[in-house]
Amino acid sequence: MLELSRERRRMVDVHLSRRGIHDREVLQAMQEVPREAFVDPGFEEFAYEDGPLPIAEGQTISQPYIVAFMLEMAGIGRGDQVLEVGTGSGYAAAVMSRIVDHVYTIERHADLAEAARRRFEKLGYGNITVRTGDGTKGWPEAAPFDAIVVAASGPGAPLALQQQLDVGGSLVIPVGEDPEEQRLLKVVRTGASTYSEEEFGAVRFVPLIGEEGWREGGRSGASHASRLPRSPSLPQMIAAAAEPLPEFDHPSFAKAFDRFADRRVVLLGEASHGTSEFYRARAWITRRLIEEHGFTIVAAEADWPDAAAVDRYVRHRQASPRATQPFQRFPTWMWRNAEFAAFVEWLRGHNERVKAPGGQAAFYGLDIYNMRGSIAAVLEYLDRVDPEAAGIARERYGCLTPWQHEPSTYGRAALTRGYRECEEAVLKQCRDMLARQSDDASQDGEELFDAAQNARLIASAEHYYRTMYYGGAQSWNLRDTHMFETLQHLLEARSPDAKAVVWAHNSHIGDARFTQMGIVRDEVNIGQLCRQRFGEEVALIGFGTHSGTVAAAKDWDGEMEVMSVRPSREDSYERLCHDASVARFLLALAADPALRDRLIERRLERFIGVIYRPETELHSHYAEASLARQFDAFVWFDETTAVTPLGPEHVASGVPDTYPFGV
Ligand code: SAM
Hints:
binds S-adenosylmethionine; 9-stranded mixed beta sheet; alpha/beta; EreA/ChaN-like  fold; 7-stranded mixed beta sheet
């Protein structure tokens, strides 16, 4: 037998604990039972992946997470007597046997029941009794049970099973007609003849075949079941909870988001970097948060020095003498587009009307890519205020000079030629700038804050490009941590009660702990870090679409193209929203606990960045996530269009070439 205890530990940590299974006895039992002993020969190495695996008779051994989830829902504990319907491989019964007093388990296929019995014997699990039969009728001689767990999906909760529950006992069973998706139901016996029901997320199980289940051959007809009243489908539930959104310029569009106005930080996502509706929605929501609710910081997934040029313009400050056109680096359309330009003009106009000191709203970039722009900004500042210090800084940053134009190649050089000295140099410079900032914060505040932030950025960027060479989570985490820390500096620098709106891609904003990036790759993001730091004072709002067009490139540094977005996959969250048949809506996830529960179960979610490759969409753009845990709300536009780019990719006529200001 393979030694797989490490993989087992990892499964418990990554697939169970981190996904919200808290019951310590369940976690401990799953840590103890060797799942590899329950899979068919040849499948042992996959035993600790979080998926179902095939066993004999066309059946499956259930996914570990679902086993844990059902046992947690059933609330099993020491001293209990438990019935399982659908022994299958025997794995779930084995896990339960490590917690409870005795497990009774029924399987309709005699060979499966026999194989499971042999496994229990071999492992020395003596408190399990197996029999072959129709589990929908229960095991009357051993009743009452503290819990009954059914591992196959029926048309409803069989009456016989409900009647064999002890008072206070729970029956957990997947129910529903759709072979692709059923819902998990928990029935609690509250008295001699009273029961309560609660529904949990969507699941997929093999059918429960029997007298109070389905007929042999499929789910098309219940044989003799106590049918539950038909529950609405998930798209129907979404449609019922969805708050339709009017046109952007209609006052009630942005007003719908007033419920988040008391938060300190509102993070607005996007499912692509090139969709007009996402930009316009964020702009209109932000306008209202600024005008009506005292938000004064807009912090975007944009480069700091470039955003600083926009900030000077919107706050009517003098352009920097080194000013060049901002956002010239790939992907230019991400900020050089008509939608963003309209917001910039509005913000400038708004700030002109603001009379209260400190009441103007500022625009900042949280990202670290324009290292060259940041170096120029630090040097320009020091040249002006302290030429001697500028000389030292020039020498220190000189170390990075060869890579300023192509920083992504720096990592390789740092590895092969011992360029660690650059790290020393940029950190020294960063410390000097921060010391300067704390020494004379009174004079020259904005300019010095900008220069110090650039110095911080260069230090982060040096580290980022060095680690990028290795790939993996470290460089992503560095970038998102830098973005989060920058946001914190902005809030602190502004005032103790300052409020910020953040614009970034869904992959940065949706809490990473509930996505594949966090669960599998240990990546963190700004949404997660904000929640961990600010708790309830944060709103994470994701955006999504079904189909339409998007501005994106096929490769990094490639030409921008307007591409068709493929209709969303059938197994995605996007398809559920599309099937709700509401063209554009806001879904406040916390407001509807029943829907929230059903949107917790992991599904595919689409992520289009500046690169879009429709031909490999599943692998390059979809990842599993738990929508309801990732976001507080989700904004939906069923059909979307590409942003209108400005500048070199200019496609619209009549937009001034000098955007955003004639420098
Ligand atoms: N708990 C199992 C494990 O850990 O391997 C997985 C069970 S598998 C998903 C469902 C099982 O339910 C199948 O083995 C199927 O034969 C069995 N089944 C379906 N209808 C049944 C019924 N009426 N009575 C007993 N077993 C049934």
